């Protein structure tokens, strides 16, 4: 288990990385230490043997948003120079807490409960799948503070919701119930126990062919990138050619025929 300033924990069990925001006393509000811890956790998972990730928050909420007072106390609300620094590839540190999860080669499942506001929502948007508790509330909260979503939200939200919904969420900062969030596409599904559901789903994914899962995630991302139909069809064939008939795929076939779990070396 890795820990950074008691903000995030990482535990890898049976090829599933369990990443938990652990600032429960502050509803996992994102301060400077939380930023660093989330980024470190994503890099740790990327270097591990994990095949899936469960991203969750301890305490009453997944993440209530940015710790505005913390950043104000450091003077970062007045000095905007740091916003333009590209510290993690194409992103700054604030954007990286969402985009690094999307960039992982393996699926990420976020379990949402309580408040999932602002920074918290954008971290969750980096996941491939979002499972929400019935009482969860989600909000693009930045306009409440006279700001715009700038932690990856505008790179990710347009893939999930209609333009009018995106504008409504951005302009009003109004929290929405989980059922509405599911109808709009912010939430994949609703579960009474979202963490248990996310863990079960991650376990199921971790039992699939690791190379095939990675190829599937790459292919979805490529298909969503704006590539032409011809380019997507070619990429399908390239990814399939790298899988079909190889030892991993043959083990999956044999395991299905023998009605057992596959064993990947």
Automatic annotation (TrEMBL):
Pfam families: ECH_1 (PF00378). Keywords: Fatty acid metabolism, Isomerase, Lipid metabolism. CDD domains: crotonase-like. Pathway: Lipid metabolism; fatty acid beta-oxidation. Belongs to the enoyl-CoA hydratase/isomerase family. This is Crotonase/enoyl-CoA hydratase family protein.
């Amino acid at each position: 288990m890795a820990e950074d300033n008691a903000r995030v924990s990482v535990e890898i069990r049976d090829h599933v990385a369990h990443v938990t925001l652990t600032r429960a006393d502050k509803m996992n509000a994102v301060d400077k230490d939380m930023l660093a811890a989330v980024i470190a956790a994503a890099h740790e998972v990327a270097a591990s043997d994990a095949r899936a990730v469960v991203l969750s928050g301890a305490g009453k909420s997944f993440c209530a948003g940015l710790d505005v007072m913390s950043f104000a106390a450091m003077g970062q609300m007045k000095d905007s120079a740091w916003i333009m620094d590209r510290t993690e590839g194409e992103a700054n540190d604030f954007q990286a807490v969402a985009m690094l999860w999307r960039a992982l080669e393996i699926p990420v499942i976020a379990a949402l409960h309580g408040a999932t506001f602002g920074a918290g929502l954008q971290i969750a948007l980096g996941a491939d799948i979002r499972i929400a508790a019935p009482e969860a509330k989600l909000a693009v909260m930045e306009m409440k503070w006279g700001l715009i979503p700038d932690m990856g939200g505008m790179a990710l939200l347009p893939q999930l919701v209609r333009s009018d919904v995106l504008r409504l969420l951005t302009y009003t900062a109004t929290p929405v119930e989980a059922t509405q969030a599911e109808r709009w596409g912010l939430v994949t599904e609703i579960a009474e126990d979202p963490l248990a559901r996310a863990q079960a789903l991650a376990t199921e994914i971790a039992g699939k062919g690791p190379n095939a899962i990675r190829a599937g995630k790459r292919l979805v991302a490529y298909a969503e990138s704006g590539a032409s139909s011809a380019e997507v069809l070619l990429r399908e064939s390239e990814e399939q050619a790298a899988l079909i008939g190889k030892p991993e795929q043959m083990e999956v076939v044999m395991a299905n025929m023998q009605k057992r779990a596959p064993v990947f070396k």
